[in-house]
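Researcher: We're teaching a course module on how sequence relates to structure. For the next exercise, students receive a sequence and then see the predicted structure as tokens, so they can try to spot secondary structure elements on their own. Here is the exercise chain.
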Amino acid sequence: MHKIAPFLLLAFLLFASCLSFHSDEMPLVPVKIGSKWGYAGKNGKIAIKPQFDEAQWFQEGLAGVLLGSKWGYIDESGEIAIKPQFEEAYPFGGRMADIKLGGKWGCINKKGKIAINPQFEEARIFQEGMAGIKVGDKWGYMIRAEK
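Model: And here is the predicted structure for the students to work with:
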């Protein structure tokens, strides 16, 4: 398994380098070493040591990470930006992220404050100002109001 890890890291970094980004810097990419996840930089070197049980891609400067049984978010320096407290969490999109608390889905802002109270059975990631939601057996959309 240890022989395949460098190959997977290289393949992952090559794939990521083919993606189009808005800056000249390639973002940090999640990498799994042993049983823990961390992040590598564009040079392939570990930038944030593997310490997470799961790790998401960075979106809008934050990445969801699982510590134990709770999700939170880190910044690009590896510091906890929003403490792990959520049952599930999606990446940020449109300055908000879907989170699950008490078995229901809601949204937080980038400061970790509840923006939409958890009340939905299911939720999808915000795209173009809208996110799919499920209440009972019905699906609909919530629309982010610009302020």
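Model: If you want an answer key for the exercise: The CA atoms of residues 37 and 50 lie 4 Å apart. The longest strand covers residues 46-52.
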